Amino acid sequence: SSNSLIVSFGEMLIDFVPTESGVSLAESPGFLKAPAGAPANVAIAVSRLGGKSAFIGKLGDDEFGHMLKDILIQNGVNCDGVVFDRAARTALAFITLRPDGEREFMFYRNPSADMLLTESELNLELIRKAKIFHYGSISLITEPCRSAHLRAMEVAKDAGAILSYDPNLRLALWPSAEEAREQIMSIWEQANVIKISDNEFEFLTGHETVDDETAISLMHSGLKLLLITLGRHGCRYYTKHFHGTVEAFQVKPVDTTGAGDAFVGALLCKIAKDESIVENEASLKEVIRFANACGAITTTKKGAIPALPNEEDVLKLLRG
Ligand code: ADP
Fold first, then answer.
1. Ligand 1 close to Cβ of residue 245 (< 6 A)
2. Is residue 259 among the annotated active site residues?
3. 31: pLDDT confidence band, cut at 50, 70 and 90?
4. Residue 257 Cβ contacting ligand 1 at under 6 Å
5. Which of 233, 249, 256 gets mutated to test ligand 1 (max ligand atoms within 8 A of its CB)?
6. SS3 for 288?
7. pLDDT tens figures, 290-312
8. What is the pLDDT of residues 189-199, one digit of tens each?
9. 10 Å Cβ neighbour count for 138?
10. Residue 71: is its pLDDT beyond 70?
11. For residue 317, how far is its CA from the centre of ligand 1 (angstroms)?
């Protein structure tokens, strides 16, 4: 089919990343205002690789919301499904970089515009055009966005789209771990392609390391492909017929933010062009190798969106 549109649904926000740590207040450390939100990162990753991409979500009608929409447009992402909330503000995340390299998040979300998308604001025409409909979990946490999310999934599925899910667990945003697990698993049942990280595998199954038996038990009849990313150790893949590992590329990471989203964007780009690649192990491994390369490149630059590669960057790494 000539239709290869990938529609990503969910949150988009601004990360305030301190540009220097340990600078005294008098020296006035700066903040980098970095566009963020996993589904938006995926939309831009797809577009940068030359894929057809659209984003559906809600932004505040403020400086930040308009900045985010401009970034999507500059990156060639279709924004026909982007709406603005007249009252609520764009979500903001304030990040503290701890000395050990860990990040701490504090959110402006009370509630923010991204959580206020309603069913009636959905661009159903756009959703029905999707070859792949991709989404996360944050849009499931509260109403009215939750109902909009579920309706969008249903419309996409009825129109024949492949449903792609990356739970992207942000535990702190959920009322409880039990609720997060429950909601993730209820959405899980409907997805055709799922990508999780090893941390999410542990959260969902209680198993610290990824074992085949448990991973296979997560498969269901509609699920064509389950990917478990392992950071610098690459990625495990599971289909109904085969499973295995594709090693990561060796790079010097600077900031791993967005690696998973780059990986998903790359994977979806390839599946949108030819969904049968999932059925052949050799071709699937090629695609995962491509996605691993995208993830690896994204770790070598600061930020998520600025670090996302184009196809040429990826081919360079693949050639070695
Ligand atoms: P997430 O961001 O969802 O936690 P990962 O960190 O596992 O996802 O990254 C996704 C993919 O990006 C990995 O499967 C791997 O191919 C690549 N990647 C991530 N971190 C590194 C790294 N340090 N070195 C090389 N590749 C990496």
1. no
2. yes
3. confident
4. no
5. 256
6. helix
7. 999 999 999 999 888 999 999 99
8. 999 999 999 99
9. 25
10. yes
11. 15
To test the pocket of ligand 1, the residue of 41, 299, 301 to mutate (highest count of ligand atoms within 8 Å of its CB) is 299
Q: What is the pLDDT of residues 201-228, one digit of tens each?
A: 999 999 999 999 999 999 999 999 999 9
CB 290 within 8 A of CB 315: no
CA distance 139 to 145: 6
From 54, 255, 261, 303, the catalytic residue: 261
Q: So what's the ipTM on this one? A: 0.98
Q: With helix as H, strand as E and coil as C, how does 143-184 read?
A: CCHHHHHHHHHHHHHHCCCEEEECCCCCHHHCCCHHHHHHHH
Residue 27 CA to residue 276 CA, distance in Å, equals 56
Per-residue model confidence as pLDDT tens digits over 81-130: 999 999 999 999 998 877 776 778 889 888 899 999 999 999 999 999 99
Reply yes or no on whether 258 is catalytic.
Answer: yes
- Rounded distance from Cα 90 to ligand 1 centre (Å): 28
Q: Which residue is it, tokens 């529609």?
A: 7
Question: Which atom of ligand 1 lies nearest, measured to the CA of 293?
Answer: 16
* Confidence (pTM): 0.95
d(CA 165, CA 275): 16
Give the active site residue among 10, 260, 265, 303: 260
HSE at residue 2, side-chain half, CA atoms within 13 A, is 0
Is residue 22 over pLDDT 60? Answer: no
Question: What's the pLDDT band for 24 if we cut at 50, 70, 90?
Answer: low
3-state secondary structure (DSSP) of residue 220? coil
Instruction: Tell me which of 57, 258, 265, 295 is the catalytic residue.
Output: 258
Neighbours of 153 (CB within 10 A): 20
Whether 27 has a pLDDT exceeding 70, the answer reads no
Question: Please, what sign has the CA dihedral across residues 208, 211, 217, 222?
Answer: positive
Residue count (the chain): 320
Q: How far apart are CA 267 and CA 259, in angstroms?
A: 12
